[in-house]
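Dear all,

This email documents one entry for the complex benchmark we are building for the journal club exercise. For each entry we list the sequence lines for every component of the assembly. Then comes the predicted three-dimensional structure of the complex as a token string, followed by one or two observations. Please use this as the template for your own entries, and keep the labels exactly as they appear.
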Amino acid sequence: MSVYLPQVIHCPYCQTLIQIDAPECPACRLSYPRTSALVGALPRLNPMVADTTGHLRGADVNRLKKQILKIQRRFPQLVLQVVMHRFSSEHPFSMHAFWLFNAAAIAGEGKRGRKNHALMVVIDPFRMDSAIVPGYGLEPLLRPDALNHLLELSGPAFESKNWEMGLNLLLDGLEGLLESVSIVNEGVKYGENEF
Ligand SMILES: [Zn+2]
């Protein structure tokens, strides 16, 4: 299976295109250590569904965990984490989401870079912001426009503060998206074999 791997990503702070392995953004000098100094301590995250804000009821958390387990059974390399947390409004939301994804290392310490098949859904119910952060291993499969589409689908539920419903829709959409890209990849594989 050959997958196109992007060599560049957008800086989460200033959106400049930077090399994946760059230690810092040449435009704004954002780096992981510098971001850590800016945003402070890592919140304590419960596995799979972490809500530090108390917006989700226990039953909601259990339902969402079941949904995540079902998706992870279908896609065993995938590690999914939902986070609801209040972030400081001083910094761009994408920077908080990027930093949290890296700091939490939900894929496990050995799974950095292209071995990272983790995906984090980050929601701030106070800022009314949401983001989906895929690990580098998933980035080539999950295009930003497809991920934005998932956020748009769940947007109305989030806006009416129905967090459980929004997350349920988002995870459903994500499962469908993963299913469609896994079929596309098989198509790529067959296509290559013909050459
Ligand atoms: Zn930058």
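Observations: The longest strand covers residues 118-124. The two ends are 14 Å apart (CA to CA).
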